[in-house]
Amino acid sequence: MVTWSTTVLGRGNRLNGVAVLPQGLETLGCDELVALGAHGVQPLRRAAAFQADMACLYRLHLQARLPFRLLREMAVFPCQGRADLYDGISNALNWEQWLHPSMSFRVDVTGTAPGLNHSHYSALQVKNTLVDLQRELWGERSSIDLAHPDLALHLHLNRGGAVLSLDGSGVSLHRRGYRAAMGAAPLKENLAAGLIQLTGWDGRMPLVDPFCGSGILLIEAVTMALQQAPGLGRQFGLEGWADFDRELWEREHARARQRRRSDLDLAPVVGYEQDPLIADQARDNIRAAGLDGLISIHSGSFEQQTLPPGPGLLVCNPPYGHRVGSEDDLEQLYRLLGSFVREQASGWQLWLLSGNASLTGALRLKASRRIPVSNGGIDCRWLNYGIR
Length: 388
Known about the structure:
seven-stranded mixed beta sheet, Rossmann fold, 11 helices, alpha/beta, eight-stranded mixed beta sheet, VC0802-like, 388 residues
């Protein structure tokens, strides 16, 4: 006999949740959750557990910059195999209320249980369970949509137990909605936001990216300084939940809009990009993010540029040979960057994302901080150099 608990909660009640975070930014992610009103926050590997009421959960979706996803725990049940999984999923929710055949859905699975060792297979078992229930109720079934589902389900299997959650984002929260095009090795927006947070930049000193690409580091920096909520320009999966509270959502939406600062005298924010087509993409992204006139993009190599009056902050994610560029060419590029900052950036701070220690050696600079992070599965260091 499978015992199970359902935790569909109302406006005034606490729910359990998990924020999925970039590796290396777990502590920052916990701080952000607390600042936005979450309780009982606990760091996990690439994640953080928290408790929140529904208003706070909505607030996190609209205002949190660092999570990939926010998962709302709905049911916990023992799971020692396929039979337990079938019973547990069947009883986890009132599926007649939550998943009508007119809705599409997606199932993501992490972890393992006896006989359930592969995430794709386990997800298929969940899907088959729900389809069976729908056919019994309505004689028809939902379609599967991996990209934009109406209902996104997440199942975690661990130590003989299962946790079924709803993914309120639908599409990953790092997708803010302003970036139409991406380069060959894109930096995700939530990781960019976390890297900027680690620098301590608040908008009051010049900020320059000598390899700005599509402008993500600069855009995330300025939206953070302005307290512009990252989730205002997109749709969320939670808007289709059976217990979605439209009035509460609109209240949190208005609260997020009102946070944007209009009193900040922003220092110069500048990006350099050698490829004119990518420079145009950066300008398009800046416009789409509502930051026209706040970030300047200069076409051409950083060597041809002059920094604004400092001191200030240089931030960059130069290629490190995994996806873009050959190592021999890149070594010369790093050598030139080191010469550029020594000649032009005395008194500035340089923060550089490195996925190749031999290349950063070509800078001929000594890092004062080395913060481990993961960028697309590549083990990296966010390096800080004080330029004398």
